Amino acid sequence: MLGDVETKAHGFNLSTLYRSFQYDPPVDFSLNDSERGLLELSRDFAQKEIAARAPVAWEEGRCPTDLLREMGELGLLGMLIPEQWGGIGMSTVGFVAAIEQIGQADQSVAAALQAHVTIGSMPLYLFGNDEQRERWLRPLAEGRVLGAFGLTEPGAGSDTRGIRTRAERHDGGWRINGQKTFISNAGTDMSFGVTVLARTPSDDDKPRFGSFVVEKDTPGFTMGPKMRGIGWRGLDTRELFFADVWVPDEHLVGDPNLGLGQFLAALEVGRISIAALSLSLTQAVLDLALAHAKERVQFGQSISKFQAVQFKLADIATELEAARWLTYRAAALRDAGEPFLKEASMAKLKASRLAASAASEAVQIHGGIGYMLDSAVARFYCDSKVLEIGEGTNEIQHMVIARALGC
Ligand SMILES: Cc1cc2nc3c(=O)[nH]c(=O)nc-3n(C[C@H](O)[C@H](O)[C@H](O)COP(=O)(O)OP(=O)(O)OC[C@H]3O[C@@H](n4cnc5c(N)ncnc54)[C@H](O)[C@@H]3O)c2cc1C
Q1: Ligand 1, atom 11: nearest CA belongs to which residue?
Q2: How many angstroms separate the alpha carbon of residue 174 from the centre of ligand 1?
Q3: Beta strand ranges found along 165-279 (DSSP E)
Q4: Which of 158, 194, 348, 353 most suits a substitution to test ligand 1, by most atoms within 8 Å of the C-beta?
Q5: Per-residue pLDDT tens digits for 47-93
Q6: What does pLDDT average to over the chain?
């Protein structure tokens, strides 16, 4: 028995070593009735509506807010917000299950949805006061407007402390100057504005940051045209400009000095949702590649009979299972109120790397037809790269994990 083994050479007890790898508490990933109900609702809507309408928006480079509004009516835009504030109070596990379904139909719609539910709504839910939740969170959770999160700047991406946008204190409010870039969901006809991070005054050398709600018609707040990416073409991503934008004190969310920590807390759950998006993309390209491999005949037989093709498919399926366990585990830890920073980074790292490599292999299995933008697999291939970049690059995920290991 393992517990009785004493290694003479090294002098340690294996059972102690074994216990040190056990996780506590145990986590159950089986879906309860409401999580399963949400999964089925999401699958129905994804298959009937999103799969039919979103590819056109992708081609046209337009955010399909008609679909997002309908998803709002179904409660999907308030998945992680309690009913008290207009949401449906779903668990993180249920949220991951829903994103898995929606992302298989279209990645841009799923990307807009997850950005809204996590980073677009979380700063207000976690750190806003009740007045702010009533004023801004409720419409977000009820799906009447779309939420945006303004952290990244031209000079500060991974290095979040390097942001230069400033908020100066003036009578009864704050004056904001600066620029943000790559901000999703801020410029659609459904957008209400953005929760933006800015430097606040500090008496010492340490930088301080606060978060502020800036509504879209505020004087001095402007934005550039929708940016054109390799993928996620249906996602609205823009540069934002703040020239002497004045917001009253009620727009400050949480502590004027702790805004960076607030934003990073919102990003933690955002990483679980990028992992979920990655799972959905991998499942989609696996299904497409498998169907094509069975159908396509070369050298007198279906290409699925060639071992080289079989091994690609088997590898994707195996890695997908592993990535799925990591992602649901991170989600279940969050639901259990346990720390999940390291696990969210591990899930995002593993699942996004897999999505990018699986999409490439799936195109390979399709051959030339997979290279053509009219094919679904080509669109997923284009959509896959950003998963390794958004909400903290994979290098940053490595750093978070290494730090958690004590490096
Ligand atoms: C489609 C899209 C949507 C986005 N939506 C939003 C949004 O809604 N809100 C928002 O605030 N931001 C958003 N972003 C920004 C995104 O979070 C950043 O692009 C990302 O954090 C990386 O920052 P960067 O692009 O400035 O890259 P950089 O930080 O310049 O990184 C460039 C490279 O250097 C590497 N690197 C940097 N520092 C280190 C280090 N210390 N060690 C090792 N390697 C390092 C990076 O990993 C990367 O490979 C979006 C981006 C995209 C592409």
Answers
A1: 151
A2: 28
A3: 166-170, 173-184, 193-200, 208-215, 221-223, 237-248, 252-253
A4: 158
A5: 999 999 999 999 999 999 999 999 999 999 999 999 999 999 999 99
A6: 93
Q: Above 70 in pLDDT, residue 104?
A: yes
Percent of the chain with pLDDT over 90: 89
Indicate which atom in ligand 1 lies nearest the CA of residue 237: 3
Give the phi and the psi of residue 81 in degrees, each rounded to 5: -105, 135
Residues 212 and 327 both lie in one domain: no
Picking from 98, 117, 141, the residue at the C-terminal end of a domain is 141
Given a cut of 90, whether residue 28 has pLDDT beyond it is no
Q: Establish whether residue 232 lines the binding site of ligand 1, counting it when its CB lies within 6 angstroms of any ligand atom.
A: yes
Is the same domain home to 47 and 122?
Answer: yes
What pLDDT does 1 receive? 31
Residues 193 and 227 in one domain: yes
User: Has residue 234 been placed in a domain?
Assistant: yes
Q: Name the β-bridge partners of 179.
A: 241
In this structure, the residue with its CA closest to atom 9 of ligand 1 is 183
Helix (H) / strand (E) element for 149: namely: strand 149-150
| Cα 208 to averaged position of ligand 1 atoms, centre (Å) | 21
Domain membership of residue 336 as a residue range: 261-294+301-404
For the question of residue 391 being annotated catalytic, the response is yes
392 lies in the same domain as 269: yes
Q: Could you say which of 120, 141, 162 is where a domain stops? A: 141
- Say what the pLDDT of residue 29 is: 75
6 pLDDT more than 60:
no
Q: pLDDT for 168-181, tens place per residue?
A: 998 899 999 999 99
- Nearest-angstrom CA–CA distance, 75 and 169: 38
Residue 392 CA to ligand 1 center (angstroms) comes to 6
The gap from C-alpha 309 to its chain's centroid, in whole angstroms, comes to 31
Domain annotation covers residue 19: no
Contact 119, 344 (CB under 8 A): no
pLDDT computed for residue 171 by the predictor = 87
Q: Does the C-beta of 149 come closer than 6 Å to ligand 1?
A: yes
Residue 237 CB less than 6 A away from ligand 1: yes
